[in-house]
Amino acid sequence: MSENNTGVRLLALKDIFRKETDENHELSIKELVDKLKIELPGSTADQKAVKRYIQTLQASGFDIIENEDKYGKKFYSHQERLFENYQLRLLIDPILSARFITEEEKKTIINNVKELTSKHIAKTLPDPIVYQQSINQDYQLIKLHIDKIHDAIYQSKMIAFQYGDMDIHKNFQLRHGGEMYQIKPHALIWESDFYYLIGDDIKYSEGNNPRNYRLDRMRNVTISNERFARKRKDLSTYVQNSFHMFGGQDDWITLQFKLEQNVLNGVIDKFGIEADIRKVNNEAFTLKAKAKLSPGLKAWILAWGSKVKVISPQTLVDEIIEEIEKVKEQYKE
């Protein structure tokens, strides 16, 4: 038997251990021989050869546990993993809930993560199904932006980009006539379902920096050859100070908002690009959506202050009025 054949069989057996076994799933020598023949059709490896392969893998540092049942039959498993089960879950859950990642990309990423464990444990992990439909239509741009900005941060290089928003017709419009923003990038963070760049805009003083920019609103990101001196910044406090999940009964709500860019941005961020938004006139627009009638919803509405009015349902109108009256009472002497 050639060394090449032995090497191929060793790699195939190692892959079988990784995929087929764990602390709750073991295989006998006979089962390993059968699976090796499936992996390598035409393989002539017998039980003695597989036992030698196991010893070789163990000698190379690959973890293989040997157990014996009450009848003296031996079983083998690979139990050492790069990630614990809960760690895999920690990796998968944010991916499933991230609205800026397309559903197709979620499937690819999660299936790749599942390759890090046995097929048995992989079955217990969440399937790459649609938990919440992605709201972002520019994921390909975001992927490119992430790579470029990480490179710029690592090299302490300036970046430039254009920035914009969705208008009332859901068309992307560049701010300031397409002016290029010149930024010293410090960090990328994922906050409230979106990726943000935290950086210093060279147009502003130290006291008015850092500032944050959403990656999906960037266009034409380029890395400059100009380097900058990195200074230590307390970004965690910045993020924490930069300002919800409640249960409740689902119902259709209709809200009327003042037609202002920051209001429109907030509504689209919350309800997505497919939200039922309609222009009333040059000063107002309405939103119709299904939402849970909950304290969280009321808090979100009240946060807009005079920029929003509840149209329906009447029960929500009454609750908002009642809450406003309670707030007014707080300020009476």
Q: Can you lay out the helices and strands and say which pair or pack?
A:
Layout lengths: L2 H18 L6 E2 H11 L7 H13 L5 E4 L5 E4 L7 H13 L5 H12 L4 H6 L14 H17 L1 E10 L5 E3 L6 E11 L2 E8 L9 E4 L3 E10 L7 H7 L7 E10 L2 H11 L4 E6 L2 E10 L1 H9 L4 E5 L1 H17 L3
Antiparallel strand pairs: 1-3, 2-3, 4-5, 4-6, 4-9, 6-7, 7-8, 10-12, 10-13, 11-12
Helix pairs in contact: 1-2, 1-3, 4-5
What does this structure look like?
By secondary structure, this protein is α+β, with helices and mostly antiparallel strands. It has 4 domains: 3-77, Arc Repressor Mutant, subunit A (Orthogonal Bundle), CATH 1.10.10.10; 85-124, no CATH class; 139-241, no CATH class; 249-330, Alpha-Beta Plaits (2-Layer Sandwich). 40% of the residues lie in helices and 26% in strands. The chain is built from 11 helices and 13 strands. Strands 4, 5, 6, 7, 8 and 9 form a 6-stranded antiparallel β-sheet that branches. A hairpin with a 5-residue loop joins strand 2 (65-68) and strand 3. The longest helix has 18 residues, at 3-20. The model has no long low-confidence stretch (mean pLDDT 86).
